[in-house]
């Protein structure tokens, strides 16, 4: 088995440069679109899309009038693609940054997950859950999709199961929804969980 290279800026930037972006659906996916559509009229909510890639969800929210949508990604090529496609997207909302280095100042109301968690080294999963909780205000929402399957190829993407994921999020979140998505894209049908988690009011001292 080939060793996994460090999943750093160089790795991800190169994936974009050589066009190895099999995760890229080219448009917002139905589960996220339907969730956004039921949020109602745009408001000042601060929304973070970490590991946003080319940012189709950010584009959708921006075009729908949501003013405070921020994306974070390590790869300049990913953010450049969003900027080129959507020139009106605020440059200040394109964060060329490591998700784990983001600060909760001010905190976010909503974090959107899609094929970012599965792209991380699995040893970072507990830190991902903790960092999402740290970035959200109490009662803030982490929503999106997690693969509920194992992959035959070495990752990324790295697969997993709902039981495994539950253990990461339970310390910080109340579970509103955590079940197989019903409106996935056909190749992902039955293989991904739709999650909607509310950050607990109080975090343990060590997790702030
Ligand atoms: C599999 S891609 C998914 C992109 C996008 N969410 C999508 O569904 O098209 C993972 C993305 O996460 C970014 N990424 C990986 N590690 C990161 C980190 N620590 N902080 C921010 N972005 C990261 C990569 O550059 C890449 O764009």
UniProtKB/TrEMBL annotation:
Keyword Transferase annotated: yes
Cross-referenced InterPro entries: SAM-dependent_MTases_sf, TPMT
A Pfam family recorded for this sequence: TPMT
UniProtKB keywords: Methyltransferase, Phosphoprotein, S-adenosyl-L-methionine, Transferase
Protein name, UniProt field: Thiopurine S-methyltransferase (TPMT)
GO MF annotation list: S-adenosylmethionine-dependent methyltransferase activity
Ranges in coiled-coil conformation: none
Record carries keyword Methyltransferase: yes
Organism: Hymenobacter actinosclerus
Transmembrane segments: none
Annotated GO biological process: methylation
Cross-referenced PANTHER family: PTHR32183, THIOL METHYLTRANSFERASE 2-RELATED
């Amino acid at each position: 088995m080939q060793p996994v290279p460090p999943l750093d800026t160089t790795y991800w930037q190169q994936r974009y440069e050589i066009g190895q972006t099999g995760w890229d659906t080219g448009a917002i996916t139905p589960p996220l679109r339907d969730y956004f559509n039921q949020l109602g009229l745009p408001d000042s909510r601060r929304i973070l899309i970490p590991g946003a890639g080319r940012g189709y969800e950010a584009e959708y929210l921006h075009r729908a009038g949501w003013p405070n949508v921020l994306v974070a990604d390590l790869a300049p090529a990913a953010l450049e693609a969003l900027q080129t496609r959507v020139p009106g997207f605020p440059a200040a909302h394109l964060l060329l940054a490591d998700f784990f280095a983001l600060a909760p100042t001010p905190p976010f109301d909503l974090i959107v997950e899609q094929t970012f968690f599965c792209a991380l080294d699995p040893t970072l999963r507990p830190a991902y859950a903790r960092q999402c909780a740290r970035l959200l205000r109490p009662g803030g929402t982490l929503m999106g999709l997690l693969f509920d399957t194992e992959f035959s190829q070495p990752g990324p993407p790295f697969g997993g199961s709902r039981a495994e994921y539950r253990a990461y999020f339970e310390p910080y979140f109340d579970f509103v929804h955590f079940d197989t998505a019903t409106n996935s894209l056909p190749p992902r049908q039955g293989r991904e969980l739709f999650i909607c988690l509310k950050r607990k009011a109080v975090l343990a001292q060590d997790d702030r």
